[in-house]
């Protein structure tokens, strides 16, 4: 389960908004973001997708992914 890892990493970034979307309750949003598998993490800068990763990540892996991709902004 990725949720606790997601929450742990989110606490470390006060300048980044972390949000979870209930894909069953929001099928149009799921389609708009082209979500094909769960979990999927999408890093956005306003309306532009910077990066995405599918599959469960533990906190250290997720933090590394966020750090690497924040450099692209």
Task: Report on this structure.
With 73 residues, the protein is an alpha+beta fold. It has one domain: Glutaredoxin (3-Layer(aba) Sandwich), CATH 3.40.30.10. The protein contains three helices and two strands. It has helices spanning 3-10, 27-32, 59-70, and strands at residues 40-45, 48-54. It has a two-stranded antiparallel ribbon. It starts with a helix and ends with a helix. The mean pLDDT is 97.
Core attributes:
single chain; 73 residues; alpha+beta; Glutaredoxin; two-stranded antiparallel ribbon; 3 helices; Thioredoxin-like_sf; Thioredoxin C-3; protein-disulfide reductase activity
Secondary structure layout plus pairing:
Elements: H1 3-10, H2 27-32, E1 40-45, E2 48-54, H3 59-70
Antiparallel strand pairs: 1-2
Helix pairs in contact: 1-3
